[in-house]
Amino acid sequence: MSGFLSIFKGKQQEPGAEVQAPSAQTKDERFYRAGQWQLVWWKFRRHRLANFAMIVLGILYFIAAFAEFVSPYDPLHRFKDFSAKPPSVIYIRDTEGRLRLPFVYGAIRARDPVTMRPVYKEDTTRIYPIKLFVRGDEYKFWGLFPSDLHLFGTGDPQMPLFILGSDHLGRDVLSRIFYGARISLTVGLIGVFLSFILGLVLGGLAGYFGGLVDEAVMRIIDVLVSLPAIPLWMALAAALPQDWPQLRTYFYVTIILSILGWTSLARVVRGKMLSLREEDYVMSAKLDGESEWQIIARYMLPGFTSYIIVSLTMAIPGMILGETALSFLGIGLHPPTISWGVMLQDAQNVQTIAQLPWLLTPVVFVITAVLMFNFLGDGLRDAADPYVT
Amino acid sequence: MLSYIIGRLLRMIPQVFLISILAFIIVQLPPGDYLTEHLNRLRQSGASIDQAEVERFTKMYGLDQPMHIQYLKWITNIVTRGSFGYSFEWQKPVNEVIVGRIGTTFVIAFLSFVVCWSLAIPIGIYVAVRQYSLADYFFTFLGFIGLATPGFLLALVIMYVAYTYFGIRVGGLFSPEFETQPWSWAKFVDLLSHLWLPVLILAIGGTANLIRTMRATMLDELRKQYVMVARAKGLSEFAVLLRYPVRIAINPILSTFGWLLVWFFSGGMVVEIVLNLNTAGPVLWRSLMRQDMYMAGAYIVIIGTLTALGSLISDILLAIVDPRIRFGSMEGL
């Protein structure tokens, strides 16, 4: 049996070998033989921006998944001697002009005599090279495996490495961004998953049964759409008690985000259902005596799965921004939970931004993530209908 | 045409009614209510409570009665007397607090809207005609950035840039010296000098979106044969564009009227809070946080109704310019 399987596998790899040098004829043949998903994938590969976006998102999610290891410090570790420190400058040439591996200088902390704020000066006599795989703050990877290994750092508690500076409490901003990615990037996924279910069920019902059900669902959508999202989110989020455990708040925030997110997907599903209902093959399935559920699941759903994926991708950025806005306003997640929105709470007034501009760096990550999801969605939309060239 | 408008208007009534129910449920969601909390606070501080006053409120809003009765009282007051109830926090009727502020928010949204359309339509036409030109790439890039950056983050960044590089403290609606003065020409100019920033911030996101839509539909239309016919007739290029493809390509833009308003109100709230404007956003936010329920409810109802009105207007506009909608079925609307 296993021998048979390996033969089967070997055969499957053969078309892959052809990809290297397809002659004109085999290329055509390949096109006509390929399944829908194969075609979608080929078309997607041609969209350069979307491919780039996929790689960037891959990196971001990798960081989110391995935040403990990738970030140089524990996000709650307060370096008391290094509060509000600007980003470290990384050198490769020392004062004597010699080339070295990347390093940072030590820092001398002083206080501004007028404002009493800490000021930092570089101490060029002390050199701290940046090392890979250093031992540092202890953590439990995914809450399971204890370790203290970090991807990079100075490995010296005397002079921590602050690539994006530290906040008022002396916590490393970069580490916090990495840990924050975990929440900020998943809020959208879970929210989209919930809206996906709502949208599919309600849109499907409206489109398949039409009539009164359709009318009711469409009116509900009308109402939800005419309520501005952020005020509605604010109103719902304000209802969450402030003293709830973090995980529970997070869960409810995603529900709030998805309550409004399902409408656009429901519209897509409904429109597709309405048009597919009239198709001949659906009629013949009906005549064949198939049950309604089977018709929907086996014949209609596959007809627009790709469109659903596109609208899902396009819905994620809205949810990421929603979480950021809510947490920024102080009605979403709260410290000690770390998310990009929570981090931006520290950057709410002009004075803070002017003194510690590096606290705005989560903005860059938010915009990057949102932008990349948009690019990815664009590429997927182009590829969703591979038969149109 | 008239029957279409009347039909559309009739559809709006249950919609607004549902919005009001939702608004009421939402503001009732947080546990406890303002009056009880307020009384507790007063008791703790040892202040004397006018029992007659408390009873008057309780009776007036039916606070001791079940939810649906409370809702009926509330909505009857709104419909029959235009009164949105009493703001416990501001200690005066909600109407007094919000009329001016909703007005300012509306002015900001409307100005952003004007900026948006007057930028997006010509740019959209231009980049469609000059597809793959430098300008096309430039605006596509700008459009993506505008789309991905929500207003309040943009406001934060602009505040930082203005403060560190130009030493200006942006924010607020008036300079401090004008804050308490009566209206004058100078105060109006001062208002304008503060207003352009929120207007611009709000307009950017919408403009980016509209340019994309306009460009896409224009490109579709430009490929059609009637454009070639118009050229063959010897019309000037300008006339060819404006008479035919633009007239069709503008339809999706007209239909944005409704959701652009939603967009501006929605995004506007947080931008207004960040820029510390004395408009609807910050007040709604505070009333939500303090459970000042009639205040919060009033905002949600008013904004919901305005946006329902917005989509009504865009549907009517569409019906005027596109006979297919006027005479066709209402399906899909």
List the helices and strands and how they pair.
The complex is a heterodimer of chains A (389) and B (333).
Chain A: H1 2-20, H2 24-33, H3 36-46, H4 48-65, H5 67-70, E1 91-93, E2 99-111, E3 118-129, E4 131-141, E5 145-153, H6 173-209, H7 211-226, H8 229-238, H9 246-277, H10 280-287, H11 292-329, H12 340-344, H13 350-355, H14 361-384
Antiparallel strand pairs in A: 1-2, 2-3, 4-5
Chain B: H1 2-28, H2 34-44, H3 51-60, H4 67-81, E1 86-87, E2 92-93, H5 94-129, H6 134-148, H7 151-166, H8 185-222, H9 225-232, H10 237-243, H11 245-254, H12 256-274, H13 280-289, H14 293-321, H15 323-327
Antiparallel strand pairs in B: 1-2
Helix pairs in contact in B: 1-14, 5-8, 5-12, 6-8, 7-8, 7-12, 8-11, 8-12, 12-13, 12-14, 13-14
Task: List its salient traits.
heterodimer, A: 389 residues, alpha+beta, MetI-like fold, three-stranded antiparallel sheet, two-stranded antiparallel ribbon, B: 333 residues, mainly alpha, 2 strands, globular, disordered C terminus
Structure description:
The complex is a heterodimer of chains A (389) and B (333). Chain A is of the alpha+beta class. Chain A is built from 14 helices and five strands. In chain A, 61% of the residues lie in helices and 12% in strands. Among the domains of chain A are: 93 residues, no CATH class; 150 residues, MetI-like (MetI-like fold), CATH 1.10.3720. In chain A, the strands form two sheets. Chain A has a three-stranded antiparallel beta sheet with strand order 1-2-3, with no helix packed on it. By secondary structure, chain B is mainly alpha-helical. Chain B has a domain of 196 residues: MetI-like (MetI-like fold, Orthogonal Bundle), CATH 1.10.3720. Chain B is 77% helix and 1% strand. Chain B contains 15 helices and two strands. Chain B has a two-stranded antiparallel ribbon. In chain B, helix 12 runs antiparallel to helix 14. Chain B starts with a helix and ends in a 6-residue tail after the last helix. Chains A and B meet through helix 7, helix 8, helix 11, helix 13 and helix 14 of A and helix 1, helix 6, helix 7, helix 12 and helix 13 of B.
